[in-house]
């Protein structure tokens, strides 16, 4: 019996493992939403499609399984763009059904007509039309296979009238998910082992591509007495219970992480695609191992580039290298790492109850949150407090917009994570700027009964932008925000809310917030003048901040300069 394209598409999505579809219903997908209503897929109606794409990405990032978005015509499908780019860069397997006007009107500049392929093919692994009803299952299956295996977005474009077409659907197309192993050839492995043996001080720089190689990395570090530095995205996978871990490299990192790479004779960078060239050591020190040959040497010049998956390559390398007995290099950065951690705790202490530092909030959240909590942060300063002040336990999960760097990702991605893991504590760490950009989807939490916990770092400014301007020696402009009491706003939406302005009140409020039934929001007024201090203070940074101070005084803003000093340097 012939089936409609809409029912074939829905059935193929279910067989590919999808559980939810995020979107807003409308004319060109009405037949599709009707088919969804008759399936086991759950439709999540969002208030803005961008939030739907973020939520789908959050779900898929956490589960590794397929999630789906569906958009109507040009406007609806276009609204997904930013969230789709975020999901693709995060490696989240998301499939977007981007509908278009009827084929009879296509090519005539019909209202709402948009060339979806030109928009999405630049940032997807698969982007194709269903051009004939007989293609429906095949296209959806191949799109899902691309998203799941290549880890990113696939887009299927469907003209609205296509959904009601019929096909016998006789070919049984399947999604295949092979898991090959890969390592460098024998000669390359021999050359690599010789480099390791010749180096007195070896450090490992591991990224999210080494997420499955934690035990192999630890075995290598033990044998050659190497400290391990990790990228921010690899925190949850490589940091927990790892005695060789010395933290993070880069502007968001810590001193031990930066210096362990700077002062090594040899750095083994594995599964690591960290973008900022200035934080890499000189090229003669670097061996890069990556599963994707196009990644080799694209961030920094290197001495040797090898292709292999992290787990297989390190498992083969460990028996080939000679054991080292000198522990000085490792111990130096283990000690510095402990000092860095003590510094993070010190930053979170409060002497003045009327001044809440964001680190104080993050430290308390770290203590109060569940051992297997899922944390999702907005981009900007809330991301810094997450990465520096929340401990990875081996069960906790973390998600930030580290590659796309977009505002407003926090609570929508957390929404998808909570739908995927309804029995786990999921916490969105929101900036006031990020939250207000997609604030309408607070109503989605209520409508879809999603018991998400949101904490707002409320500082009335685009904090990271303000800090960037000041570090450049500029007087900050256009970063101030006029905000409501977010707890009252939440309550108006049907969400339980708390508002805190005194640090003595935070613990009681946080306990009640975490214990609340249903969605809940904790609005905390934090220090507006907080700086994100880099791992090492350079003379140019000090000079630039001093230049800001001079300009601000001349601009009649002396009090801000005093507050900046008092809140960051004199406490």
CATH architecture of the largest domain: 3-Layer(aba) Sandwich
CATH class of the largest domain: Alpha Beta
Question: Which structural class best describes the helix and strand composition?
Answer: alpha/beta
Let me know the average pLDDT.
91
Span of the ends, CA to CA = 75 Å
What is the fold-level CATH name, i.e. the topology of the largest domain? Answer: Rossmann fold
Query: Mind describing the biggest β-sheet?
Result: 6 strands, parallel
Q: Major sheet: order of its strands?
A: 3-2-4-5-7-6
User: CATH superfamily of the largest domain, called what?
Assistant: Thiamin diphosphate (ThDP)-binding fold, Pyr/PP domains
Which outline best applies?
Answer: globular
Total helices: the number is: 23
Strand content: 15-25%
What is the helix content?
Answer: 40-55%
Q: Which consecutive residue ranges, at least 5 long each, have pLDDT under 50? A: 545-555
Number of strands: 20
* Rg, nearest Å: 25 Å
Number of domains: 3
Domain Thiamine pyrophosphate enzyme N-terminal TPP-binding: 4-119
Family: Belongs to the TPP enzyme family.
Pfam family, one: TPP_enzyme_M
Domain Thiamine pyrophosphate enzyme central: 190-317
Explain what you see.
It comes from Hyphomonas beringensis. Pfam families: TPP_enzyme_C, TPP_enzyme_M, TPP_enzyme_N. The structure is a single chain. This protein is an alpha/beta fold. It has three domains: 3-167, 3-Layer(aba) Sandwich (Rossmann fold), CATH 3.40.50; 186-338, TPP-binding domain (Rossmann fold, 3-Layer(aba) Sandwich); 351-371 and 436-570, Thiamin diphosphate (ThDP)-binding fold, Pyr/PP domains (Rossmann fold), CATH 3.40.50. Helix content is 40%, strand content 16%. Strands 3-2-4-5-7-6 form a six-stranded parallel sheet, sandwiched between helices. A six-stranded parallel sheet has the order 11-10-9-12-13-14, sandwiched between helices. Strands 16-15-17-18-20-19 form a six-stranded parallel sheet, sandwiched between helices. Helix 1 packs parallel to helix 7. The longest helix is centred in the middle third of the chain and has 20 residues, at 328-347. The chain is globular, with a radius of gyration of 25 Å. The termini are far apart. The model is unreliable at 545-555 (pLDDT under 50).
